[in-house]
Design goal:
Elements lengths: L1 E4 L10 E4 L9 E10 L2 H7 L16 E9 L11 E5 L8 E5 L3 E3 L13 H14 L7 E5 L4 H12 L3 E6 L2 H10 L3 E4 L5 H8 L5 E6 L6 H7 E9 L12 H6 L3 E4 L7 H14 L1 H5 L7 E6 L3 H10 L5 E5 L2
Parallel strand pairs: 8-9, 8-11, 9-10, 11-12, 12-13, 14-15
Antiparallel strand pairs: 1-2, 3-4, 3-6, 3-15, 4-5, 5-7
Amino acid sequence: MHAITIPEPGGPEALVWDEVPDPVPGEGEVLIEVAASAVNRADLLQRQGFYDPPPGASPYPGLECSGRVAEIGPGVAGWNVGDEVCALLSGGGYAEKVVVPAGQLLPVPSGLDLRQAAALPEVTCTVWSNVFMIAHLRPGETLLVHGGSSGIGTMAIQLAKAVGAKVAVTAGTKEKLEQCAALGADVLINYREQDFVEEVRAATDGRGADVVLDNMGAKYLDRNVRVLAVNGRLAIIGMQGGIKGELNIGALLAKRAAISAASLRARPREEKTAIVAAVREHVWPLIAGGHVRPVVDREIPMADAATAHRVLEESGHVGKVLLVVP
C-alpha cells in the first residue's frame, strides 16, 4: 500500500507519499481500506518531530479515518467485511489501509457519505469526553469554546446547543464568527479586538462560563480562570499558546472551580473503547436526526498531504480538512 511517511521531521515538505508494507490485523482488530482521513494539529506536531505515536501504534500520521472493513482479525464480533465505518486511531490514517481495534470503530451515520464520516471520530470523541464526560456540561449552562471555527469548535458548538446549553465562542475574523453563529453560537467574540472575559461576563449577567473548552493552554490560563463561573470547569485540550503558565490558586479556590487536561491519542485502548461507545450512544442519533453535522472545509488528495498541513498552519479554514484516497 501507500502511506504518508516522515523520513525526517520538518516542514510540510517532510511528508512523503511512499510504498510501505500492508498492515495485518491482530487479535481484536480490523483492517480498513481507507476512503478519507482528516488533518489534526497533532499531525503537524508529529511531522515536526514533537509528538511521537504511542508505543505499538502506526508510525504514519492520521488520528481518524473512514473506509470499508477489508479484513477481520481473530476475536472480533459485530462487524463484517464490506461494512462502511469510521474510526478513532492512534496513528496511521494517512494511508490506503489501516488496522484499528474493533472497539474504536463506528458505523457511518445515516445521512452522511463515506468521505464526510472521516471528519467525525476525533472531534466527537474529544468534545464528548472533555465537555460532557469530564466537565459535565448541563442544559442551561454556558460553554465558552476557544477556536470556535476549528473542527473541534464547530462540533462543540453543535453538541452544546443540542443539549440545551448557551455557547460563547472566540475566533479571529468576522467571517469565522458568522459561521459559528450559523451553527448556533450565541456569543461571538473576536479575540483580536475584544476581551473574552468581559464579553462572556456581560452576556451572562456577570456569572461567567460554566465550562471552558481551551486549546491554547498557558497563554489563556489566567483569563480562563477569571472567566469561569462559581463551580466552573476548565477543560484544556491543547497548548497552542504555550505549556507553562502561572495559576492563581486563590482565584480557583474562591470559585470552587476545577481544571482538567486530557489528550485522546495516548489513552489506553479500554478508555478509548468506552469513549467511542458513549459517542455512538449519545452523538450518533443527533447526527442521524440532522441536529449535528460535520463541517468540512475542503478535500485534498492524500498524496498531497503537505498542502493540507499548510492550510492548517495558515488557519484560514473552518471545520475539518480531509485527505481523500482516489
